[in-house]
Prior knowledge:
Radius of gyration: 26 Å
Number of strands: 10
Oligomer: single chain
CATH class of the largest domain: Alpha Beta
Number of domains: 3
Distance between the termini: 77 Å
Helix content: 40-55%
Amino acid sequence: MKEQDIDQQADDDGAQLLPAHVAQGEGSIVLAATPIGNMGDASFRLVSLLETADVIAAEDTRRLQRLIRALGVTPKGRTLSYHEHNEASRTGELLDLVTGGATLLMVTDAGMPSVSDPGFRLVEAAAERGITVTAAPGPSAVLTALALSGLPTDRFTFEGFLPRKAGERAARLAELRAERRTMVFFEAPHRLEAMIRALHQEFGADRPACVTRELTKRYEEVVRGSLQHLLEWVEGVAARGEIAVVVGGASAAAPSEPADHVGAVNQLLEQGLRLKEAVAAVAEDARVSKRELYAAVVAARS
Length: 302
């Protein structure tokens, strides 16, 4: 393809608000990312969609009004609220509007709809009915925090908000203790200290982590260090604003040797298991050779 053809294609694609496969007059849903703090991050496409969509479904209509005022936008379509308390009852109504040919724009308070925000139920129901869903991507607190953390970004997992109750939170972190990928969490300011303390207890003082606060805003703050460092830091601050916490994954454990598990076999023998049964049980759990473990137990007895 010639350079001028590439430039022409880029110009054509850049002027397009919806994908070419959305037929004229066919209804569709557009999930649009909104700024996570800095209004300068609003895309041209978001502005155009706010102006032209037939219906705008917003997590908080008051936040939407502040957004459109800041962007100098005058929407032509109607606005409806769509949040966690009315998703179940309003999803069908929105899909009926789309089926009738409307372009529905879905926005949340900040970032991408359906990512720890309303929208998942709408997309799920639209997929079941064969309704077109596309996205106008943009700001993301998850990816911004990950990029700023200084921790590995090649493989990561988004864990959202941890459970509020201490016992449930500890149980969830215990499940994640051996997670090798970098982990990204959201947390409320008033629960941040309890969260860091729980991470410190479950993952250890030396695990690297990063707390990001008020991303893209005037008082943006990024604090990196071990969980011990972050625990000492959080005890002396009154954190405010939107918070994302990034935690490094667990280090690879050194491969164990059969001789390392002789003690575990002996404990099972004391509980009444036969030698072969105890060796088989421990070998399967530790993922070592039964034959070599058996030999190690016999050698330890001689």
